[in-house]
Task: structure prediction
Amino acid sequence: MYKNNFLTKNNTIKQAFGKINGEFGKILCVVDSKRSLIGVLTTGDLRRGILAGFNLNDKIEKVYSNDFSFVYLHELKKKKFISSKFNTKKLTDSIYQIPIVNKKKQVISIVSLEKLIDSLGDNSKKISLKKINYPKILVVGGAGYIGANLCLKLLKKKYQVVAVDKLLYDKSVIKKYLNKYKKFKFIRGDICDLNVQIDVIKNVDAVVFLAEIVGDPACNARPEDALKTNYLSISSMATLCSHLNITKFIYTSSCSVYGVNKKNDLLNEKSDLNPLSHYARMKIMSEKTLLNFRTNNFKPTIFRLGTVFGPSLRNRFDLVVNTMAKNAYYNKEIIVNGGEQWRPNIHVDDVVDGIITAIQTSSKKIGSKIFNLSSDISNYQIKGLASETKKIFPKANVKVVKSLIDGRNYRASSELFYKATGFKAVKSVLQANKDFKKMFLKDKKFNPNNKIFNNFEIINDTKKK
Result:
């Protein structure tokens, strides 16, 4: 049952990565010629070895730990540890499994840390439970519109979270919502900096890459910065994660890569790409780069997101649904540019749930693949979004501006991800408008026109400076 958990000290680092195969918390037992336990290996040990300059063909004797926890079977049965080496206060963040050995120190089984402590019954009260940890997730862009909500939900699910963000927009989100969690670590830094990348990647189990300069106007305002953040940083991060054999890497691309579809077909992941902007072209470049780096131990999952909407810990009012809700409430006006164009849409909370589904799903099912992540019931024409807004803000007048028409026109299907995982987006545009109305009514001093809620205005300001 545990044959794939065993190695000798003459096995290579490459062979060890192959046995772990991206499984969260898996430990490998290093045994001698008599099958007695002499050490353990974790992904953290292997990655520290790589960062220290060892290569994949080096022997694991250079990186495995001979100072490790284990429990004797006969002491476990008596629920009293004497010779066993087990103290959760000394366990590292990457230890989730404990080897159970016989009197000859031969491994009988390997159990999760949580299961081991549960089996001790009342005796478990003598053991510190603070070090029972869940996978550590790095969220790049963790203070952003999607990232802040993702960090909070991961923490509530008991994951460890490391967030990196340069706090270009709202600087209060981390302090207000996330710093109270003990399993949360925030690093303020620019992911374009290679030193920051190396610093944040240590000891993580999965990476969610959300950092970017979002949207056509913002990218056009700062094209060089957009190139660095939206493409070059992803390329270098993929190189690093592939080098360190970090299997789970989730990247958010965009359905804007489809650009325009005159036939109004329901587009899937094999549909032709027709990018109309610098932003969309960089998304395609990043997708190709990630897939070029795929290996048996680095299997990125790429999401092409529909237009995201809905309230967030870090709100944005430069997205079409959110902008309509803001203008409908405060200006009693809903401005429609064009109106006939189709867009796929998805609630920010559904994006978060889709990402968490990807974290929890085997890379065999979704690794090295591209998926549309949108709501199949929320493919709307822009004029349809205005109608949904007016249902909740009936006093607002709809104003159609025919001279301002965004050329993008596409609908998208997320059936492929549903078939792979069973996940389906459920939150509607109508519900988001209801939530915005509650938010506006609750806080009379709220100012949605503050620049921190508009990515383009912040980017434009930093450009002037």
Remarks:
- The longest strand covers residues 248-254.
- The longest helix spans residues 223-243.
